[in-house]
Amino acid sequence: AQLKDAHAKKLGAAEIEKEINVLREQLQSKDQELEKLRQEVEILESELGRKGDSLLSLEKENKELTAELKNLLELRKSEPKRSAKEEESARQEINKLQTENKKIEIELKKKNQTILDLGKENKNLSSKVEKLENKIDELNEEIEARTNLIASYKSKMKAPSADTAGEESEETRRRLEVIRKQKKEKIGEILLANNYITQDILDKARRYQKEYGGNLTQFLLAYGYIDEYQLAQCLCTQFAVPYLPLSSYKIPAEVIKLVPVDIAEKYWLIPVDKVGNLLTIVMADPLDSKAIKEVEEITGCTAQPFLGILSEIIDAFEAYYKKIPAKIKEKELLPQKAKAAPFFVDTETYKGPERREAVRYKAEIDISFPLEGDYIRSKTTSVSRSGFLFESDRPLVIGSLITVQMEMPKEYSSLPIAVVAQVTRIVRLKDDKYGVGVKIIKISKQELNTIIDFASTKKRE
Question: What digits encode the pLDDT tens for the residues 444-461?
Fold first, then answer.
């Protein structure tokens, strides 16, 4: 019995200990909750303190504003009342001041606008002055180019040049007749003696002339063995043949009709003037007695020949006969030493690098140039090494020089390319426009190559 009681007491103690542990855990949990509540109370007390301070501040401000309002009301009561007349006078004074203020504002706006307008006008005037200075520079460049060109012509043409038809002297005419009769082959020998051509070239020219006809100088010019200036210099210096500049001469229509187009293109000549029975003709080779004789037989006139630059004859031919001279047919491949064929040479076998000058490309290049105080802008429609074509709203004088700025694509040239060109062709187009053809007078070799490099990416004509 005693053991049972002891065991029961032991079990009871264990249960009690277990309950005590549970209570301890619950007490610890409650302590944690209590600590949280204390922290929340502290936070609330802190906020309450701030709110209280804010409330006290607001109450203080309210008291101050109330006192200030009371003082203002007291001052208002103590201030003497204005009469209706004084009130009206005050209102009128205020209105007057407001009106004057508006006037001042309007006047100020006008002054500001005037200043802006003057600024714009000054800017426009500065721009105009700059443009005029640029035009003056361009005109000076063109004048210099003309002067250089004239000097070049004078150095090439040492014999006296005739400014108008009919100035050839009787002595010169008799001398030419003697030359034509006695020195039929002299021109080739003179060119050879002056190192313009070699003996081999002269022999080839004579064989070609014998086989296909024509005259010797036509062959040499057409296939690039000599250029037109070399021939002109030779004729002027050796035979005192007078030179007539076609680019500055206007030919009457009735004179053009005297020589048929087939004769003119056969001998590379063009009639210029007729005085009585004397017919003035300009020829690439004024020593060609066969051509002169045929012209005299057809026209019934006495022919008076003058020397002409080949390119000027071609330009005049196109302008007055309204066509380009018939194309020369080639029977055999020319030597590689041949220079450049003129644009009127047509051949299936002439495909080497020497024909590049004859190739035209449908290339558009932005161009601009000064003209009579204005600035013309256009685009090229055709480009070759010798010149280019473009359209213009205004006609240009044939033979005149222009200084052209060519705007190339950036990948070809970052700067404009300056070209001195001579007007060689004018054709009236539709819509009151003109087709203009020019030949290149002055340009650096590198810049010309740049133009052709770009143009050659376009289609050939």
Answer: 888 898 999 999 899 887
